[in-house]
Design a protein that fits this description.
This protein is α+β, with helices and mostly antiparallel strands. The chain has one domain. It has five helices and five strands, in the order ααααβββαββ.
Amino acid sequence: MLCPEVWRFPAPSHEIVQKTGTVELQSKGKDPIRSGIRAHPFNQSITVVLPDVSSIPIELETALADSDHYLVRNVSLQAFINRMFIEGFVKQGKFYAVSFRTRLDTDDCVAVVHPGTLVLHLNKETFQSLGLEGQVSEFARKRGSKYGEC
């Protein structure tokens, strides 16, 4: 075999999802885009595409302008369950956190989402060692290898 055809391999499986419509950013009503974002607490960014729009809507500019964030390293999960921290930030809706540089399919991941819900996405070994009740994660590559707890 002098010249094997190394570039002839099947394409990986994939899925493309497109959601269209108008979004009223100040509305608290049913919003499928916002609901989709909130349903996945480990998202670290979103992309907004506005085709054929000459200027960004003021509602969108306002929503994006209020986006202060900080990177804090080597914080113990115990710091997030301190009573004073919970009362001062989490219950006030002024705190959101997601583990950084972790892989959802292989690493232990943690998120704190509005309104103060702690979401754990753990490897089977970590999950069993903590003695928690939860369910198998829908994001696990191997069945039964990842568990989620809310």
